[in-house]
Design goal:
Blueprint lengths: L2 H22 L11 E11 L2 H10 L4 E9 L1 H7 L5 E9 L2 E10 L17 E7 L2 H10 L3 E2 L5 E2 L11 E6 L5 E6 L17 E11 L2 H11 L3 E9 L1 H7 L5 E8 L5 E9 L18 E7 L3 H9 L3 E2 L5 E2 L9 E6 L5 E6 L1
Parallel strand pairs: 1-4, 5-9, 10-13, 14-18
Antiparallel strand pairs: 1-14, 2-3, 3-4, 5-10, 6-8, 7-8, 8-9, 11-12, 12-13, 15-17, 16-17, 17-18
Length: 345
Amino acid sequence: MRPWRLRALIVLVAALALGAWTLASPAGQDAPRPAVAAVEGVGLTVASMDRAVEFYSKVLFFETVSDVEVAGEPWERLHGVFGARLRVATLRLGEETLELTEYIAPRGRPAPRDARSHDRWFQHVAIIVNDIDQAYVWLRRHGVEHVSPAPQRLPDWNPNAAGIRAFYFRDPDGHPLEILQFPAGKGAARWHRPGARVFLGIDHTAIVVGDTETSLRFYRDTLGLEVVGGSENWGPEQERLNNVFGARLRITTLRAPAGPAVELLEYLTPRDGRPYPADARANDLLHWQTLMRADAVRPLVTPLGRRGLGLVSPGEVRVPDTALGFKAGLTVRDPDGHAVQLRTR
């Protein structure tokens, strides 16, 4: 073939490919929009709302945004709990929110007292502080239950985690929590702004997973979260932080276009973490749920079901207009059993 004919053929093929891409992609967009527009907050089930609100407000300085009571079939279907009557309080710290839920009926089971940081029902939120020593003294003064023996500084040999200081503890219901301080050059710029507040906001929620690649097919490929970082952590500081002897973790951080990150914690060692209880329900005190906003919930039902994931809700559930601020939702479990509640406003 003559050179000019070859060049013409290349131009024609490129034009056809561009035309096909243009037909498949919305005008002015490089890629389809992610299914999830934001991680709007993190929810957890509590035994006593009054006790929980007092702890999160007086000890961790969250502010109450709303406190409502809901009941009826839509809420039963959304959460997968028949006969549910819920008291739901939304608390804010900085720009992030926690949603506390007390099941007035039916009451669920208490959190396992022998829970470990590498059990696959583990989930926590990382609360950023500007002075971890001052924050730790404050927590000690209020008698929190330790998970870590003391704040730990992650070593300099690990460039992605070097200089981060963190401490694990529990709330009155046994939910694990973390305070974390970023060194200069790490974390969002807002975590380093000068100010009088010690407790600043939530950077991420972390969940233990059995296999990172399987979890990425859910959070990245189906929900559209973007991988923004990762590291492999081990050593005595990490072991003491998690209170797991021999801990070696693969950590993968994902983000939606807005809101706190979701951090996947895969324990490469030890591998004896217990699976998420198959009979767990939203009224049990080990229950957490990551709250995500989607432009539309119904289109996600089929792909989530096709992946063999546990649909807690029978499909999209329309809810009455309440102070919770959304009109439809869907609760699903990820490959390890962690709950994600997708909401549309």
